[in-house]
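Lecture 7 notes: from sequence to structure.
We start with the chain below.
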Amino acid sequence: MQPDIYISTSFAIGIVLTILGFMLLGIRIRVEERTVNLRLSRGFLSLAYFMLALPAFIEFFFEGERNVMFVEIFTPPVATIQSMFFAYTLLTFLQPTYMTRRQMLWHATIVFGAVILYFVAALNVSHYHYVIYVGVAEYLCLLLFYTRLLRKKYALSLRQLEDYYDDDEQGRLRWVKNGFYVALPLGVIASVSAYFPIWMHLSFMFVCIIFYAWFVVRFFNYAAKVDFYLSATTREPELDNLEQLPTERSAENDPVKEAQLRDSLEQWVLDGGYTRGDISTEEVAELLGTDLPFFRGYFRDHMPSDFRTWRIELRIRKAQELIADYPEVSLNQIAQQVGFATRSNFYLYFKKITGQSPTDYRNQIAARK
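Predicted structure tokens for the same chain:
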């Protein structure tokens, strides 16, 4: 590959990364205490994009002159800093208030301190490759730490969302987990990309561009629905440990409230309230004129299943009606109309309840006509 083609392509990639970085900075996030970390992560992630673009611009303006030693030494620490920014952003998506300023300062101090020591050693010894090997090994240890922490916070966030909304929310967070597991090998490859041939380096950069563009889109989507995550992950669990015994007693000793709730539930079903997504169980209880402990106790004592299972069954039955009555409407549209946030959840529960996929069910209906 000709050097001028490499320089031009690399420069174009740098421009794209810069544009993506400014797009991140342009994401509007409401200013409040709960969104402090999210606003910080937006800035950190933008900085990571600019850091990726900088080498391309340097090479272009220096007419492709490439100091191999310089590139080899600087690649691992740059990958380390970018991984820190990405991990912080993903942690913020899962737990918006998890990281305190003090924790961030300590972590950043440790990482940047290690990077400075790395540079001092690598730039002042004759066999700098040994320092690079140590730096890459430390970087891999840092990735293992991030992996363990992300898995832990992912499980916590998923549990909080499902407890708050009484719904299966795996589809909401799956992109965070998948994004991390894609970024993980990209970071490892980036740490040794200085040794790639030119054509392989450019191919790798194209793959990275696709991932970084996808991540910007996901950030936009997250920011647009930030209240959905904040409501569940930043609330105080004041009722979680107090609702067991009092709920059961109140449900048994208040027949008037039971009758009112039963009537309200019937009307709620007739009005199609179960098709509304992104609404917490507590909000549903308030709409029905009762409180959350009594509401959950009523389902435990007087309904065939808990609220989550009951609502999912209602949604699937409604979906069956819509599939039969409107064969021209796409299954994705039907999934959204009946309240499913993701297509995967819709297909999963449809097959679990009816014994066949939505597509098979639609084909079966069409064959009967």
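Points to note: Confidence is low (pLDDT under 50) at residues 238-251. Residues 300 and 306 are 6 Å apart (CA to CA).
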